[in-house]
Amino acid sequence: MQTLSRRRQQVIKESLLIGGGFLFVVLLGVMIARYWNDGDTLDSLTESFSKAGEFVKRDVQVLAPVAWAEEDEKYTLTDNLSEGVSVQNAGEEVLVDQTPLKLVFGKKYTSPLEVTLAGERVVRVSDQSATEDYTSKLVSHEKIIQEASQSGSLWARFFPSKTEVRENQYVSYISPDERKTILYSYGRDKGLSKRALKHWTFYKNGTGEEKETYQIEGALLQLNRDGGIDVFYYDDQEIQKRPEANGVEGALLERASKTFADDLKQAISQGEALPDMIIPKPYLVDKDGSQIALDWKIEDEKTISWAASFEKARYPVAVDPSLSFVARSTTSGGAVITGETGAGHFGAAIAAGDFNADGRTDIAASASTYSTNTGRVYIFYNDGNITTTAGLPDVAITGEATSDYLGIALTSGDFNADGKTDLAVGAEGYTTNTGRTYLFYNDGTYPTAAGSADVVLTGGATGDKFGHALVAGDFNADGETDIAIGANGKSSSAGGVYIYYNDGSYSAADVTITGNAASDAFGAALASGDVNADAEVDLIVGASGYTTSTGRAYIFYNDGSIPTTAATADVTITGNAVNDLFGGALATGDVNNDSRADIIVGASGYTTSTGRAYIFYGDGSIPTTAATADVTLTGETTSNSFGRALATGDMNDDKKVDLIVGADGYTTSTGRAYLFYNDGSIPTTAATADVIVTGESTSDQLGYAFAVGDFNTDGKVDFATGSYGFSAANGNGRVHIFYSQNGQVSTNRILTGEGSNQYFGSSFAKGDFNSDGRTDLAVGAEGYSSDAGLVYIFYNDGTLPTGAASADMTISGTALGDLFGVAMTPGDFNADGRTDLAVGGRGYSSSTGRAYVFYNDGSMPTAAASADVIITGGAAGDYFGISLATGDMNTDNKDDLIVGAERYSTSTGRVYAFLNDGSIPTTAATADVTFTGVATNNRFGGALAVGDYDNSGTDDLFIGAYARSTNTGRVYLFRNTTATIDNTSDDTITGAGNNDFLGAAMATGDFDADGDTDIAFSSYGFATGGNEGRVYMFYNDETGIFPTLANANVRIDGDTDSRLGATLTSGDVNADGRTDLIVGGWGYSSSTGRAYVFYNDGSYPSTAATADVIMTGDATSDIFGNTLVTYDTTGDGKEDIMVGAEGHSTNTGRIYFYETKVNFSWKPQSQVGRNIRINNNLSGEEQIMTGEWGASNTFGSAVALGDMNADGRLDLIASAPAYNSSMGRVYIFYSDTRLTPSASGAEMVIAGGATGDLFGSALAVGDYNTDGKSDLAVGAPGYSSSTGRAYIFYGDGNIPPSVATADITITGNAAGDIFGTALAAGDVNNSGDTDLIVGAPDYLTTQGRVYVFYNDGSIPTTAGTADVTITGNASSDAFGAALVSKDFSTDGKVDIAVGAYGYSTSTGRVYVFNGDGSIPTTAATADTTITGNTTGDRFGDVLAGGDVNKDGKGDIVVGAYAYSSSTGRAYIFYGDGSIPTTAATADVTITGDATGDSFGKSLSVGDVNTDSFPDLMVGATGYSSSTGRAYIFYNDGSLPTTAATADAMLSGETTSTNYGASIGIGDFNADGKADVLVGASIYAVNTFNVGRIYLYTFNDNVITGGASGDCFGKWLSNGDLNADGKLDLVVSASCYASSAGRVYVYYADGIFGTTAATADLTITGASGDDAFGTYHATGDFNYDGKTDLIVSSPGYSSGDQTGRAYIFYNDGSIPTTAASADVTITGDASGDAFGTALHAGDFNSDNRVDVLVGAPAYSSSTGRAYIFYNDGSIPTTAATADVTITGNAGDFFASAFASGDFNTDGRVDLAISAHSYDSSTGRVYIFHNDGSIPTTATTADVTITGSSSTSFGFALASGDLNTDGKTDLAVGTYDDAGVYIFYNDGSIPTTAATADVNIVGDGVNTFGIGVFVDDVNYDGRKDLLVSSNIDTLYIFYNDGTFAADYSGYDKLVQDSNLPSEYGLAVTIFDINLDGKSDIITGSPADGNGKVYSYIAETEYVAPLPDSAKIRGDVIFRGDSTIR
């Protein structure tokens, strides 16, 4: 029985009232309640309810509930109509710990809900109508957590460690009599990556009669075909509002409610409504685990129930009436396939059938005149992605020779009795019209040449035209499908028909039927069906040439004796008149619904080719003349050829057979298809058909051929028709597929105009034009009706049409030439609170022009002449209305209308403002404000924009005069600073050169995310080589004055001839809360056109080619990008993009819609080193934060960690001292796991005081006011001519945003001192409180000073009043340049170390002052002095302190980055009581790598590798041209002496970044482990040194094998092997002890093992060479609910390779040796290598896990796969396996396995590889789990063959790789051909070459030898991981597109130091119990062997727009192209 986890679940829209009115709040209880008691756990279900409880327990454990968050504020629980139920905090779904909790629902409920969380975490649900009071408790199968203390929050009581996460929670409701328990569990289904809900009702005992009643309010209920209940909610919001607002009477309210219900009933009956919720058919599980299906009953309008009767002995029982939730959706309208260029008559014949045996109906279509009439047949698989061009079919078969006409006829059927649908193809012209017919068997491989068909049948003589018609049917009643072939040219066109029985031999026809007389053309058409109701298939033959083309149809009954001549037919029907061509088309079907097949005969020549179709009912009395037909249907007019083609099928899903008739000659051969529904009243004329579909253009001949089938696998019958005459530059002929949508059909997917030269899409406007709260779209078509113009309005009601003609409303222009719709703008122009529409008609009255205003008053007129306001321009030629804008021009908070007239007065140009004062003038001359251009030919007013550019709070006006000064162009700014805007410009900006057209387009928006309105405008004619175009952006600096053009903040140059900037618009199109810029370049590629998206991410590119998103038009002259608009088209709250292409299809025009979606992803951490792993190529960082863009800010110059918001976590503090002309800034990022990618997103920003202050140059954290909270000290050494300052900000919850309000300000002594250059914190007076130490290294000519300020309650405010002042020795010493405090003298007191890097010509010194109560006041009297080595070393420039030698004492680390031409050094002086006095005698000296590296530029000490000992990090900012590096030296007792031998290295991204300028170590993510921060202070964005910070969390781990050569890590798997509910890690070492082999198990107990010796369980192989552990897998192999382990030994016994597999049951005592295994299975024979592959899965659909074992070496590498069913008795030998599948000789069959539901039937299928097939070409076989698994590879259900010598199938993996809910197959290769993905779309290709995706390797590194599938970025989608045998694991995210080759990976896990086998073993699971999937990889050849774990970390990824339909190319940054 299918459980809920496998059902569709999307949207929860209402609650259920359960049993007597109990409110269904399952989700609320699950997510809110937190309570444990020791009497009710998940594990207790089995004890309480026997097998029923065990079944439910497993069902519930499928879920992975959302991890609980520890915060307890700002939570909202919502029931969103599109997202479902969730609890949220700042947008992240969590569970809640809050009392009380207010609930918000998407729909109002009939009774109010209130949930109270009591102290003991019991949830009481109160409902006004409740009759029972249930109490719910959240129960966990985990061990009870006892209360740690009675004080503090609930979190402190329940989660003392703050790190525990509970899994498998559920809520149980217990009835008062305790007989009934209702159990709910809610979480994220790991398989479907969606929310899931489990709902079980238990009955402990009973009478044997059980019944449950459920009430569903406000909905209509319907029993669906699956036995479930469809729930349709009607919108009752208005009903609920009216009584409150208007006091509506109850009767009136009831009437309104019924109206809503009646409307919904009609929508349901018409198939226009989808259910909001589906309640599947329930089922019962009794105590023995048996399942019984139950039935729903609808008792009344709102009540459903089920009832069951059974023996009392079956109690206790459980019933599952679970819910499935379905979102509203629409089915795509259809598809169009266009023929190849030069491929004539594509669509001349069509056939339907399942041609790839995937259970879906495919399409075959022909182009019979292809290549000089050779002919070609195309097969298009129904895989969800039917191509739009015949040039990309799944199969193409070409005829043998010219004039063969291959494909003149097609039919399908099982012609070889193998149960699969084959294809028959006619080629009537073969060998001088002898003719041939080809049969192509559906055997997994279709030939590409007709001559290679499986069966070739040839006609008898020249001229026969054998193959002209084909039909399939069982004509001899033997149960097999036969074929009849027409040869209408036989015997001087008398004609003949040949029948070939499907008896295994097609050598000669079994029956030949000959026509009557010459020219009869007997066999011109064929059909089959039971037309005499005898249950046998009869044959119908058309003879359209009979008697001067009068025509005849002959019926031959299948009665055992088929006549051999037409004259002896059982029934003969004769046409009406000569030239009728009666019998030219035939079809059969029950079109009158009497359960008998009827005959339909076409007569396309009737009455000068008007045409007819005749219906003859199969009622036992078939008429013999056309005149006496039961129904006659006549075409519309002459030359239509109605009846040319016929087809039947259920086209409106009413379970009745309908009729389709083609008339390919309609309207100059445009063609039509007519659909006649079987509704009891078939009309008699084509014009009255139920549905009419018309061809696209003349000569298309739509309706020439038909095929019927379910082509989109939605369970409904669709039809395809050919338009073989279609002709275009890109191909000839078309096939149109019309998907059945409850009787409605549509072929278009985008919005297309009505006709040529209408310029549909010439303008856009968005606004709520029908006052329904949604944004609608208005589209102009200025060329409509000879330029009269038309405006279309499309309401945002969820049903956007595909053609302009279906607009919700249109407004037509007045007269020809008005160009109505040339411009539009929305606005509230009558101040009534509704959005009105203004439309320009610049051509009115000899281009005088007009502007029309249409009020949104519920009655918008349909003609421009009836507009509410009409404003007429001043004079002919003014072009009044060419541009429009809306803005408040008089600061009265009302929308005013601005109209441009660019041609006014010899194109001087004018702009008119019409104020919204209740009386809009009707002429331009009476406008309220007039703005006039300055000179002729300027075209002032050609573009308009409005925005507050001076931050005055009022709308300013921008006017473009793009033609000024020989088209140089100019933009004018009119600032709105008075009551009414002044018409004198306040500023201008002029273009760069002639023909630039500056100001042709403009857009406003906050483009730098600073809260102010900026302006962008274009010079679309700008050219350096060919009309590239340019866009300028000017940020709002609050002055309201333009900078010069050269000083634009952003400048973007277009592609060649693109005319970038011809249009501009703005909007937030990546849903990040910032305004982005969208730019049109309609000139691109011969006016194909492009639209470019530039994200507001702090870094705008300088060229359009590097835009964030590029969208390209369909074809030349489309002018794609001529108009742009952004608005929310889908109602998801995100702005989408609409792009106009007014030139499409001879200026018909089109609009393309691009939907904005948001994507987040996760980064697995890569590593290099020993205990932690970090990638030298910088792919190990978990987060990158970039400084604010716009100047050289040097973000990351200093970093610190401290708890600045008193939440117990360390927060990140980072500075940008150069920010804003060195004013400086400090940023605080709270440790809330939501790091921003930009400094601008910091939770707290503190701004410096004045330019030059360098605020943030130094940072120090300490408790400076003794309140127990961390405070922050910040240095600003540049303050006041470098006097300097230090500021203290108390961590009291109110950190100020600027230094002006700092808690303490300490000012230096004198100018030039740079007081605050260095800071340190420490208790230097031994008072128990933290003091502040401040350095001023430039004091007194750089002699330097250090000041100490005691934390005694009164910190001085000047350096002169410091508690202690220490002065340097001599000038230039720079004493105080570096500081550190620590106990260096081992007396338990804090000492101070001071650096003086300038001492003795920069030799440098360090002075140590002991904290012994008497700190000296001069450097000369320091307690210890350490002198550097040589001049220029700058010894002491940087200092750090910490215990780096594990002796418990504070050591001093000194940097000398200038040592030896800036090679650099770091010196360590141990705090052992005897600190050396020279650098030369340091305890440890570490030297940098190379000159210029500046090793020692930064230092930090902290425990990086989580071994409890502080490690050392050293920065080298100059490494590799200032790329920079940070070196990590572990405190492991052996510090290296060179940087090159560091334990780990982190490198910068690129040169000149100063990576390593700052380093911080601390636990930022509150996981109990230290993290690392590295600053790159001069990282540049667009030449600005904005700076960056990199965060590394180091959660990863390495486990090392026991001995060299053990192959530790050879294979990996995971499973819960100790039954604690957590997944454990299994590692093999198959080479252990002379290859006896071992398996190690590491339990998921939160403690990572680091060696093989620390494994929790070890199992050892039996003897040498057994290779025990080569493979292993986990599963419940004894059906006890626990996970067991199976391990293979392919080398058994003693290396003879018979092979074995051992099963170890998880029964609490897993054996430690293979010999003690619970089950041992031995292979067949020596050399078989039984166990070389292992797999587990339910292969017989009994809900138990079976075992699959491979023996690829069986029988000289033939190979075998063995299946052992989990039926209680697993065999102990391969020979007694339940199923044995044998490969082909030498293929190495069964070398790799994968499983999944590959044919979407709900069962687990099997994929098996044979990578050695055909000299290592390789093959993969798929065996469907259909109850009869084949026993040989050759009889597999699907066979996929690789490319030559690629070892296709070397690796296999399965998973949903295209997010369609179906399991796909990934196949790897050995020889670097890469990885192939085969989508489960109903049509799995049979060759690697036709795979859906091929990711190609680099040609040398065996990319693809390992393939793995899992969700590694925690986005709910399965990702792809690929091994390459070169130390690299590639990760490709499942984000909608996979890269074409290996270089397009999303993430690398790589280490160039690792051996070749790294990454061949991978397992993916949550190893650290944080709810995220981690990656574990093996490296068996790495010394003893190692296993690396990569822990998933969070990272924000900027979202990208994603189009529902993309035409052309869309290029995302990173050179990835989606077509």
Brief summary of the model shown:
By secondary structure, the chain is mostly beta strands.
Structural summary, described in words:
- It contains 26 helices and 139 strands.
- The chain has 2019 residues and is mainly beta.
- The chain is globular.
- The chain starts with 16 loop residues before the first strand and ends with a strand.
- Mean pLDDT is 80; it is low at 1-41, 64-170, 186-196, 235-256, 324-333, 741-749, 1157-1181 and 1994-2019.
Keywords:
mainly beta, single chain, 10-stranded antiparallel sheet, globular, 26 helices, disordered C terminus, 2019 residues, 6-stranded antiparallel sheet
Break the fold down into its secondary structure elements and pairings.
Elements: E1 17-18, E2 22-23, H1 26-32, H2 44-60, E3 63-64, E4 76-80, E5 84-89, E6 92-93, E7 103-105, E8 114-117, E9 123-126, E10 135-139, H3 154-158, E11 170-174, E12 180-189, E13 194-203, E14 209-215, E15 219-223, E16 229-233, H4 237-246, H5 250-269, E17 277-279, E18 283-285, E19 291-293, E20 297-298, E21 303-309, E22 317-320, E23 324-325, E24 334-338, E25 346-353, E26 362-367, H6 370-373, E27 376-380, E28 395-398, E29 406-413, E30 422-427, H7 430-433, E31 436-440, E32 455-458, E33 466-473, E34 482-487, H8 490-493, E35 496-500, E36 511-514, E37 522-529, E38 538-543, H9 546-549, E39 552-556, E40 571-574, E41 582-589, E42 598-603, H10 606-609, E43 612-616, E44 631-634, E45 642-649, E46 658-663, H11 666-669, E47 672-676, E48 691-694, E49 702-709, E50 718-728, E51 731-738, E52 751-752, E53 760-767, E54 776-781, H12 784-787, E55 790-794, E56 809-812, E57 820-827, E58 836-841, H13 844-847, E59 850-854, E60 869-872, E61 880-887, E62 896-901, H14 904-907, E63 910-914, E64 929-932, E65 940-947, E66 956-961, ...
Parallel strand pairs: 4-7
Antiparallel strand pairs: 1-2, 1-14, 3-12, 4-5, 5-6, 8-9, 9-10, 10-11, 11-12, 12-13, 13-22, 14-21, 15-16, 16-17, 17-23, 18-19, 18-22, 20-21, 24-51, 25-26, 26-27, 27-28, 29-30, 30-31, 31-32, 33-34, 34-35, 35-36, 37-38, 38-39, 39-40, 41-42, 42-43, 43-44, 45-46, 46-47, 47-48, 49-50, 50-51, 52-79, ...
